[in-house]
From TrEMBL:
<dbReference type="InterPro" id="IPR004873">
    <property type="entry name" value="BURP_dom"/>
</dbReference>
<protein>
    <recommendedName>
        <fullName>BURP domain-containing protein</fullName>
    </recommendedName>
</protein>
<dbReference type="InterPro" id="IPR044816">
    <property type="entry name" value="BURP"/>
</dbReference>
<dbReference type="Pfam" id="PF03181">
    <property type="entry name" value="BURP"/>
</dbReference>
<keyword id="KW-0732">Signal</keyword>
<feature type="domain" description="BURP">
    <location>
        <begin position="101"/>
        <end position="335"/>
    </location>
</feature>
<feature type="signal peptide">
    <location>
        <begin position="1"/>
        <end position="17"/>
    </location>
</feature>
Length: 338
């Protein structure tokens, strides 16, 4: 299967004597292939990770949206307006992953991951879960920068103002300075580049990838009035902590992941049971949830103004900061540490 995009080709003209004469931009219609089926993705995956399972958050990008009313409305909202209606005001930053994940509702102290603990469960919604993967040579040819924003929106026309805001926010997040001291980060636009950054950041190509379970709905979980009890906790990585990379799916017409490493971390698989279970009629939250949680152990470089610290009565560096992975996140860890 393939998709039709308007691919921006950058041609460097070489002047006499070998000096660069300039950069010429040309837009042309082209056929852009991408991983269209699980069998194609599996062939690549098994070539680099023999006999290791593909995380569901990667497979989700190969499937069509469920087609429910919310998805249909979202599609109409994003894609119904032509790009010539965009204005400079539409291209402002409206959200940023680093700020979303900093919401106090999404953050937990590591001490709650003990059987019997009760919490109000918040897991962020998965973003652009079904955006298709591009082949790496195609992905690498697209200039992922706010400086090229006009050209990029032209590739995916028609683009509504709402989608343009999301695209600008994603590109801006990729260009933004590191949020935490010592953070390693990169935005990856192909499965190969995501694996490549993770291998570079972790110092090994022998990796395992994890995702949260399908129990977690795409729209996430928000339970301000219903509490969950921690039924079981399994440490995926050693208690001593290890280095990992987390890649967050970002809002973009094709698969784009914000990958970062804020280490060391401890990773848990947490099983939670909603109080009241299946007896609660028409509840919008699942009765049982199995989710992956990431705990950042060294928090000395974290923002001291976060309400999280006020809530705990602590300062950065005095406690870990944990959050659950969304349905669209991929976590990478050295195979030797799992």
């Amino acid at each position: 299967m393939c998709i039709v995009l308007f691919l921006v080709s950058f041609l460097v003209a070489t002047a006499e004597g070998g000096r660069d004469a300039g950069l010429v931009t040309r837009v042309k219609e082209t056929i852009v292939p991408y991983y269209a089926s699980p069998s194609e993705l599996n062939a690549y995956w098994q070539s680099v990770f023999p006999n290791k399972p593909i995380p569901s958050s990667i497979l989700d990008h190969l499937s069509a949206p469920s087609g429910n009313k919310m998805k249909d409305m979202e599609k109409e909202h994003y894609w119904s307006v032509y790009s010539d209606r965009l204005t400079e005001g539409d291209a402002k930053i409206f959200h940023n992953w680093a700020h979303r994940i900093a919401s106090e509702k999404l953050l937990y102290p590591e001490t709650v991951f003990t059987a019997g603990s009760k919490i109000n469960l918040y897991i962020d919604r998965a973003v652009a879960l079904h955006s298709p993967y591009l082949h790496r040579d195609i992905a690498d040819s697209i200039p992922m920068s706010t400086k090229n924003f006009t050209d990029i929106t032209a590739m995916f026309a028609p683009v509504s103002p709402s989608m343009a805001r999301d695209m600008w926010s994603t590109l801006s997040s990729c260009e933004h300075p590191r949020e935490v001291a010592g953070e390693q980060k990169a935005c990856t636009t192909s499965l190969e580049s995501m694996k490549g950054f993770s291998a570079l950041a972790l110092g090994t190509g022998d990796l395992r990838a994890f995702s949260t379970s399908l129990d977690v709905p795409e729209e996430g979980i928000s339970s301000p009035s219903q509490r969950y009890e921690v039924a079981a906790v399994r440490a995926i990585t050693p208690k001593a902590a290890t280095n990992t990379v987390t890649c967050h799916s970002m809002s973009f017409p094709v698969a784009l992941f914000y990958c970062h490493a804020v280490n060391p971390t401890r990773i848990y698989e947490v099983t939670l049971k909603r109080e009241g279970g299946a007896s609660i009629p028409e509840s919008r939250t699942p009765a049982m949830v199995q989710a992956v949680a990431v705990c950042h152990v060294n928090t000395s470089g974290f923002d001291p103004t976060l309400r999280y610290w006020v809530k705990l009565g602590l300062k950065p560096g005095e406690a870990s900061v944990c959050h659950f992975l969304t349905r669209g996140d991929v976590l990478w860890a050295p195979a030797s540490a799992t």
